[in-house]
Structures are given as C-alpha cells and as structure tokens.
Write a structure and sequence with these properties.
The protein contains 15 helices and six strands. With about 400 residues, the protein is an alpha/beta fold. The two termini are about 45 Å apart. It is globular. Helix 4 (about 50-65) packs antiparallel against helix 13 (about 325-345), helix 7 (about 155-165) packs parallel to helix 8 and helix 12 packs across helix 13.
C-alpha cells in the first residue's frame, strides 16, 4: 500500500527516479521545500555561525535551492500540447496501434524531466476531474500513467517485468505469461499514458536490442494506451530506421523534425519523432525564451544580497555559453552557485561564484571551446559586453 500524501512528504525529503506505482505516487504528491522566511539581515549577521538558528536557516535555504523551481519552458508547453492532443485522439480509438511520439535529443536538454512533468500534470488533471477513480479503496486499481526508465541492454522480458513490477503484477513464469498479465493489467488499470524513458538503451546492434524494438511495437499494437518515448540519437537508431540518415541535421532550434533517413521500420510508421534541442540564441524570440528561463530561476533565489535581475540583465549570454543552452546545466549551475553563496557568506550569485563551479565534463569542454573562440582576435569585436535584450529586464 502506498503511503498517504502527508506520509510521503515526511518519509521522502527528496525523490528518486520512479520505478513503481508507489514511487510515482510519491512524485505526484511531492511538494518542494517552501521558500524560507529571511529575518532582517542585521539579525542574521548577529547570529554566531554555530548558532542553531543560523544553521537551520542556511540548511533550509540549501534544501530550497536544491529543489529550485523547474521552468515550464516553451518546449515543455509545446510537448504538453502534442502529448495531450495524442491522448485525446487515442482515448476511444478502435483496436490496433495508437499513434505515439518519440522525443529525441542530446543529453541534458531535459527530456526525462519534461515527460515526467507532463505525465504528472496529466494525472493531476484526472484527479481533479474524476476524484472517484482515485478513492482510497481503489488505490492501485486505476493507474492512468505508467513511467518506465529503461536500463542498459534491456531485453523484451525486462521491459515487461518493469511494467509488471510497476503495476504490482506477478513476475513469475515465461515471457509470454508475463506479457499476457501486463497487457491485462494495463487494460484493467485504465492506463492511458505509457512512458518509456531512455529508449537509446535498446541496442539494436544486438539480438536482444532488435527483439526489444519489436517488443515496443508489440505493446503499441496490443496495449490500449498512448506510448511516449525519449532517447538520444533515435533518428540514427534502428528503432526508427534500418538505414543511415540521408542528410545533415541542423541543430539550431529548440524543437525540430530533421530530414528523414533510409528504410523505415514498422515503429517509424506508428510514431512521430520530434527533437528537443538545447536553447539557441539565433533569433530575438529564442533569446527572449532563454532570458525568460534565466529570469524565472533568478527570481526564485533566496539570498540576502543578490542584485535583482542581475543575471537576467548582464549574464544571460554567459549562462548560455557556460551551459551550452542546456536546461539541466543551467539548473545545476544556479543551484550550486546559490548553495556556495550561502556557504561563503557572499549572499549573491555572481560571475565569480559561477566561474568557481565545475559542471559536467561535457559542459566544461563545450565552454572551453567557446572561451577559445572568443579569445581569437577576430572574435573580440563580436563579444563586447551584452546589450540588454528587449524585455529581458523584469519578468521577461
């Protein structure tokens, strides 16, 4: 039996990746730490560093910053619209494969976070509209969302076992027996949205990977739900194509559908593919979207001396260069900078603080290339201090 919402909050100060219906239940009712109330700065400074009140306040701020608000970006809004439309179109569709969606893109652009946010919002809407379906006596009977995070070199049986464990179905017996119980359970539980995260772990270079690919098609044929998948480089994967790409893929847009490649698989005929790319700064609209995300995160900081909108006005381009337009990189950089600002007593996220943070190897390599290019003489005139973009100040 899953814990009640109030128990969930006390037992789980943080969240792990949901692997079961109970853990998804925790995610559904999890509320991040609220913004701590700051006493006057003079009062705070008067506290000794070992004063329990000061230590508790700083710990509360660190917990709050660690769960820094997730931005509902234009990309998230786009995919929410796409997925909700598919769910509506598929709800009472006749037997057979329902159209699905694969979200492709490089690591750290927020694919996993995006699908969980949308799945959570979808179920929250159902809980508001149909509370009787979620009555305590029916807990575990109605499961509208199933979220499965795939593992390396996953096999077809492992996929079915993961769904079976999620739905608390017996995992004993042969693959066919487990498959049958899974399909029965998905129907009985009224599952409408089946999410497969990390589809790139279907390694179609191996027999198991090709079989797993076929298994996704099997589930799409027989499970009465909408399947959404995420992965890295799915365009070049045999999941969609038996051949290689026919042309280069431009990576200068947040959401795109690159040119299609060689012979299609059956999966390609049933799933659309769209790409979630890092934020770009090629147009004024793209700049304003990035600045808006920076602004929403900056406004959430709980620091005494942080200059309002200083990151939004002066460092929006630096933040893009530093994170390569990655939403995950931006979150990591600002969360760690805020924690360090509290620890060091600077009480502000500054360029110096951000420069002292070491991000992932991929982000640091990309930033090193940017710095190297900017150091060339021909780049000096192109990299003068940022001009404030239109509407970048305030609530852009």
């Amino acid at each position: 039996m899953a814990p009640r919402p109030e128990e969930s909050k006390s037992l789980h100060p943080g969240l792990a990746e949901p692997r079961t219906n109970e853990e998804w239940f925790d995610y559904m009712f999890y509320e991040p730490p609220s913004r701590p109330h700051l006493p006057p700065y003079d009062t705070y400074l008067a506290m000794d560093k070992e004063d329990p009140r000061r230590r508790r306040l700083n710990r509360s701020r660190n917990r709050y910053h660690s769960a820094l608000v997730l931005a509902w970006t234009p990309a998230v809004q786009h995919f929410e619209s796409e997925i909700m439309e598919l769910l509506d179109a598929n709800e009472e569709a006749p037997p057979g494969a329902r159209p699905g969606l694969f979200i492709d893109g490089p690591p750290t652009v927020g694919k996993s976070t995006l699908v969980k946010m949308i799945g959570r919002k979808f179920e929250q809407g159902l809980r508001r509209d149909f509370p009787e379906r979620f009555a305590p006596g029916r807990l575990g009977i109605y499961v509208p969302v199933v979220y499965i995070s795939l593992t390396d070199q996953v096999t077809p049986k492992q996929i079915s076992l993961a769904i079976a464990r999620y739905l608390s179905v017996s995992t004993s017996g042969t693959k066919d027996a487990v498959d049958d119980r899974v399909l029965t359970a998905l129907t009985a539980c009224g599952t409408q949205l089946l999410i497969f995260d990390d589809l790139h772990f279907l390694d179609c270079a191996h027999k198991e990977g090709r079989a797993s690919n076929d298994h996704i098609k099997f589930l799409a044929n027989h499970a009465p739900c909408t399947i959404i998948g995420t992965g890295v480089d799915l365009e070049d994967s045999p999941l969609l194509s038996e051949g290689g790409p026919t042309g280069p893929v431009k990576r200068n847009s947040r959401i795109k559908s690159p040119p299609r490649s060689g012979p299609r698989t059956q999966t390609a005929g049933r799933f659309s593919r769209q790409e979630l790319a890092p934020f770009a700064l090629d147009t004024e609209t793209e700049i304003l979207q990035w600045v808006g995300v920076v602004n929403s995160l900056e406004n959430a900081l709980c620091l005494y001396l942080h200059e309002k909108n200083s990151l939004t006005r002066r460092h929006w381009r630096y933040l893009h260069d530093r994170t390569n337009g990655s939403i995950a990189g931006l979150h990591t950089l600002l969360r760690r900078s805020a924690v360090r600002a509290v620890k060091q007593g600077t009480e502000a996220v500054t360029r110096e603080i951000m420069d002292s943070i070491t991000l992932s190897y991929t982000h640091e390599r990309a930033y090193a290339k940017v710095v190297e290019l900017q150091s060339r003489p021909s780049a000096k005139n192109r990299n003068k201090p940022n001009k404030k973009p239109t509407a970048a100040d305030g609530s852009a």
